[in-house]
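Re: the 1897-residue chain
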Amino acid sequence: MARLADYFVVVGYDLDKRGGSDGQGRILQRFPEKDWEDNPFPQGIELFCQPSGWQLVPERLPPSYFVAVLTDINSERHYCACFTFWEEVDSTQKSLHSEVDEDDDSGSAQPEQLFAPRSLVLVSRLDHSEVFRNCLGLIYTVHIDGVNVPLETLIGNLLTCLIPIAGGSQEEESVRTITLGAGDRQVIQTPISDSLPVSSCSVAVLFRQLGIINVLYLFCAALTEHKILFLSSSYQRLSDACRALLAIMFPLKYSFTYVPILPGKLLEVLSTPTPFIIGVNSFFRSETQELLDVVIADLDGGTVTIPECVHISLLPDPLLHQTQTALSMVLDPELEVADHAFPPASTQPSTLKIQDKEIRAVFLLLFAHLFRGYRWCLHIIRIHPEPVIRFHKAAFLGKRALSEDDFLMKVLDGMAFAGFVSERGPPYRPIDLFDELVGNEVERIRLEEGDNHKMMNHVKELAEQLFKNENPYPAVAMHKVQRPKESSHLQSRHTSFPHLDEVTVQLFIDHAAAKQKTAPPIVKAEMKRMVPSGPPLGDAVDRNGSVLANSARRLEVVRNCITYIFENKMLEAKKLMPAVLRALKGRAARLCLTQELNLHVLQNRAVLDDQQFDYVVRMMNCTLQDCSHMDEHGIAAALLPLVTAFCRKLGAGITQFAYSCVQEHMVWTNMQFWEAMFYSDVQNHIRALYLEDQKQDGSEEHGALEIASEQRRLWPTLSKDKQQELVQKEESTVFSQAIHYANRMSYLLLPLDTSKNRLLRGSALGDVESVSNSYVTNSIAGSMAESYDTESGFEDAESSDVANSVVRFINRFVDKVCNESGVTNEHLKALHAMIPDIVQMHIETLDAVHRESKRLPPIQKPKLLRPTLLLGEELMMEGMRVHLMPDGREETSGALGGPPLLPAEGAIFLTTYRLIFKGTPIDPLVGEQVVTRSFPVASLIKEKKISVNLPMDQFIQEGLQLRSSTFQLMKIAFDEEVASDLAELFRKHMHKLRYPQHVHGTFAFTVGQSAKMAVEQKGKDKNPSLKTLSKNLVKSAKKTIGRQYVTRKKYTPPTWEQRSSLQSEMDEDEISVSEEVDQTSLTLSSTIKSSDRQTMSSVVERACCRDYQRLGLGTLSNSLTRSKNEPFRISTVNRMYTVCRSYPGLLIVPQSIPDSTIQRISRCYRQSRFPVVCWRSSRTKAVLLRSGGLHGKGVVGFFKSPNAPSAGSSQADSTSLEQEKYLQAVVSSMPSYSDTGARNTLSGFTSAHMSSSDSTDKLRQPKIGALMKQVMGSREDVPGTFSRGGQRARVASLSQPRASENDQDSPRGKWGSIRGTGRLSTYNADVGNRLSGKESPQANGGPSETHFLRPQRAYLYIIGDKSQLKGAKQDSFQQWEVVPIEVFDVRQVKASFKKLMKACMPSSVVVDPDTTFYRCLQESEWMCLLHKVLQVSVLVVELLDSGSSIMVSLEDGWDITTQVVSLVQLLSDPYYRTFDGFRLLVEKEWLSFGHRFSHRGAQTLASQNSGFTPVFLQFLDCVHQIHLQFPMEFEFSQYYLKFLAYHYVSNRFRTFLLDSDYERIELGVMYEEKGEKKSQQVKSVWDYIDRLNKKTPIFFNFMFAPEDGEVLKPYSYISNLKVWDFYTEETLSEGPSYDWELVQGKQEQTEEGDRPDTAAPTSQRRIVWPCYDRRSKVVPDAITKLLQELQGLEMELGQVSEKWKDTWDKIKATQRSESKLESRGSLSSSLLMSSNLSHHRRTQGVYLKDSMVGSAINLSLDSEGSSSSAPTGGMSGRPSTSTLYSQFQSTESENRSFEGILYKKGALLKPWKQRWFVLDKTKHQLRYYETRQDKECKGVIDLAEVESVVPGTPTIGAPKNIDEKAFFDLKTTKRVYNFCAQDSGNAQLWMDNVQSCLSDA
């Protein structure tokens, strides 16, 4: 029996303490006065009576009632039922109260009456809300209505009322009628089961308030321990909602803060860090706003708000859906039949009370589903004296295949589940509804899953049981309780609640207590019994239903392989091994492996020989590698006994066990795993312990829980001694297991080589707080954790450290499990003493094993293949055995079909030139293939250490990941046989080679010298090649640098890299520093001191000079004699590189500018790179200039000459005037300018050269305007002007705010992206107008004419950085104009390139959809950069083509400027699209004009930090894009571009070394002595290409058919750009194909090898593997193949084989002459066609990649663009028959039979039409087309049907003025065709040709 109420309290308003705005409550009386022993009085009740604060109110409020819940320190809940009514404050109190108030509101009138709250509170441990309401209501009624019953009697009766405890069995026990003695009567029904919560109808109400989904969110939030806050304006609703939430969580109990009604004064509780469920009045809503991690449910508004930072894991999917369906069927049964035509009559939802139970039934079923089979994962560790039970979480999740499920993981880790295990774990106890569900109805629940109706029936059954539990006897519910009369609380006069007599009440209580003492004790019969476990957890199928993984065939393979191993059939086993390792990915196969291996263990031991041991260990490793660290499937647990059983004999008395080879797995360092293993072993031993006793009975097998249950039943009957004995037995069992496990753990945690601390790196051994499966906290483990030292990871630990950390780990484990399983302290101390000895002993045995294992003969591994080396390339280190691992490129790993070529086993070689991997794939299916991957050491850009797991072998210690700028990635893993110091040495050597001290250390210089010396050489040693430099070179170098530099570094003489690094530190060229030095010291160095004349002659030989002469920009002799009629001259001002060190010696400048001016001007430009002419258009005579950007205005002062007067504005002004003069001289040099006499009217503006091209200009005009408009943006703002020195200047600015740079989505024109998307600040509308020839309002109001009038285009456009504009002056006549663009800087290129590399060579397989290839490519923005460069280039080309000159003046003038200038020349001048031209372009613009190849390529130690910036590669990519769009305009192939892209970073040639001509001359690289030219080694990439080009057509583009003077204007939109296959292609068969000798050498070897087999019939089919074979070699294009065959035939016939180029040229020549012959008949017609040709050619160019797979192009495609051979030109217009049939070419050219124009008479009543006829002998037909270009054939006349060809006569409508003899008729079997040729001769030709066709046939 239990007390109904513990305390009765009267709480009133405390008038004494009224201060400020908040009142306080105080306890007026409480009964009983002293606390019950078993239940002390809860503190703080007065706060909870008025949760919103105690206040006086001006009018009487109706009484209110609610139940608050207080939780005491023992987490017992006390229910406080508060009944509050309002009483008038009497006048004496009021006056008191008003006095206090006077200072507050003296001005405001006092209200007439004030009412104070008074609360009656019942405190109870039982939750009988309704009964309390009735009782308190009765007391109030008696008080109000003056019923004649003393209140003391009511309260005495109430406090002494006893009611039965829940769970009683007999009827009279569970029903109790009570009366308080005022004629009232209440029946109290106690719930049948005390474990089921009571909810009346609160759950149903909660669902009505919030809806299904919201409540489910709250439910999941509560289970996963989030904070939940309810808001409502009703207190009763708050407590109901909280009660409802707890009710649906059953069988889990909520164990965190639970406050259904929180008083406003305690709101700070909400910021507690722990989870809670709290209710707060909506009055305080504003104060809950800033809670960031609380889920807020608003009951009145029906919303649940989840903050952004909170992630609630929801139920796993099928369950979530089923639960929602079930709930909607309960709450809204009409939903199902809403669409029925005849809905059933009664589909009303149940009454609230029943509905409430139905909802709870749905949740009960949900939990039964979630936790089914949980009892099979309980480990019982102790049975006596109390059961100790642990839950094996990993096994439960693994068996249920829910290990990935977030929700269930969190629930199992939660406190509620811990409570669930400790409460429901014991096997012998009373059971409730949930136990029955899980034990007996799992099968039924499974069957109902799909069937909603069956499920609903089940729900209804459960709901009935739940309802019966709360209302066991619905019939007896009779209540008779008086209520106060209506509106009695509104009566004006109330007596206030009287003071009660304590003595009277106490008497009642004492009397009852005495009576209770004499009464016999009530013994509650507890119905304990064995708890049913339900069906065991079968192995759930994996989530993806992996029937595959479990297929019997795979298990068969595993079994067979193991059998072969133990029968010593090693060859068979080896064949099966790869299949087994693949099969072991599946769980079933792994289990199968452990079972099979178990069969081969005898008496805990299985001794194997070396190879067997090796195979078994490999299989174990493979099995463990895919296990999670939690070991969900128990695979690691099953292997644990095996790894200590399998062993091999190493020598006398030394045995190596398998555990020493499988330690590398995370699972061994996971404390939870060891605990679970320990507990399951202990359970087995304890079960065995009790089974021994029962053996005699011969009873059948029992599970551990059943035995425990039986033992618990018998426990009370046993004698004390027997009990003690059992307890001791169990304890010693646990203790012995702990010793056993200490040993086991030391086996798996101590590495074989204890000097290497492999295991502890990054493992959980370092974490003190490793979360464990158990829920018992213990003091010893805590104290251990504190003493445990805080070292992190034990990285460089000594062996003793390994021992210490292992000892600590085992100690922590032992502490934990022994405390939980009740091991005595003596035993625990003994264990702690034992563990260090165990570990030490084990270390000693391991040392011996380690020693012996080193002596084992190594396992047979594949032979290392040696790579072929270049001439002069030498090995730096012998090959080291490594594995080449697959990276993120799917092709190699077999992911896209085809065999997996990687991983491959082989060796890595480091040579003076390359890093080479050569080996064979591990997969035996492709074992014969050789895999080669290599890249030049100089192109290495990133190297990082990685650790790699090999699927096949034991674990490999460490690996490297190497990225190269030639788009190659090597992931290598060193074999065990490679010592780590050797790997380190390899890295060091690689670094030394990658960043040599000086450019002399690069392969291009050291080639052929002893490589060993080069690497060993220390910083101070002279490099052998340095000896070739004369001593005085060093002297003069010192002199140039100046003393102060030399002292800066530690050792002298200064090496070259210091020089270049200093140069990069000072943003200015060194020369400016040495200006103070006397002029004589400025000669370059002794290498060119001898005489200027010699220097000049060698400079003249340089490319620049040849090109200047070709362009007519002057010759050197001309410059020396200063002929004045040339506008430009070659200046030698820089011959000693004193003006600008990064410019060439000879420069083109305007004739009128003297050298002295140049020296001054140069200071205004960055790096002194002043404007020079680099190209001139032969047609418009416009010139292209390049320069560095201007210095900022403030910087100009730095560059004044040292002897000038002190700085003044005149200095700056004079320089800027000279600058202007210089620009003016450029403008004056243009014919268009000089012809008009430099006047500004320019009315005619049609000079000689313009008139000729005027028509074309008119066509081009609008285009440029549009271009410029797009550059500028199209807003026509007010022209922005600013003035300086009195001159108006117009600036076309493209400014943008920085922020919008990455804004890619904003709309842009073709030009938009150059300037980003910002608003234009000073856009000059005039420029755009003028460029587009539009009218713009005239300044002087005169009439505006079209095209070139006053608003003309500027003569000179300066393309510059926006930032430079400040310094540049505009001229007032607008003869030049600045086009400011915002360019990307070098850092962007660098960053973009890094991302591009990662996109093209991902280091691991891409899983995340956000990192796919195209996504990464987009993010790299590489294409955007290409687009910008091309865009600017096309703009410049357009402007040049329209006759304006351009000066490109961006950044320092050596990166983007070079790109743009080179591209412009390539697009404008066909010469640069030939071999010679392109070479000259690169030599001139890139090498001579000082692009910093060494610096940008980070070629030496000095430039290492600057990183790799592929500016030149970007240029080559742009050329490649243009090549794709105009495949017929380039003499070289795409391969040529790739070849350059590879070798510009490879350092094989000297061409791309060093930063400028100055440096090259200073090192003597520029002009090698004549003697050196003969050496075998080719030093220039150009010479190499020339030599190779003579041997093979690999660089030649067979489609080369240029048009004279064609200016190319490619599209630059990103959609028109393609990813260059140079970035993505790979040939694993031979490595990169750019070192031609290596590739060719291989080819010859293989051919020789193939020779003997020629007798056998060989198949013509070839298998071409992606990324393995080089396609262009295996499947060469048609022309290459024909040329190869021709060469082969010539060799067989013993002729001297002709060079391929000569053969090709001959064929072309004969082709042309034949085509000329054939076209005689139709010459006139062909001329008509040729005007369209150019346009047509462009749009329908034939696209071929360099491999030109199987293209059979007719050779006449190459018609050199001459319009006379238009018929052949027409070939490119449409693929005429000859193209398609060029395979059938014979000696004469009969298939090009005849073609031309004929008139043809239509069928009946149709007119004559002119058609283009083609006679085709090969197909034997005559076809006709509308026009020559037409691709669609209009009709075909089959010559087989022709009977005769005869001369005809003109008919009606025939063409006029044509000779009668020009008519002829063609008779076929079907009809007669009438034809008319252009003249009689032509007709005769046609007739003869057709006739000859007929006769041939």
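The first helix runs from residue 45 to 49.
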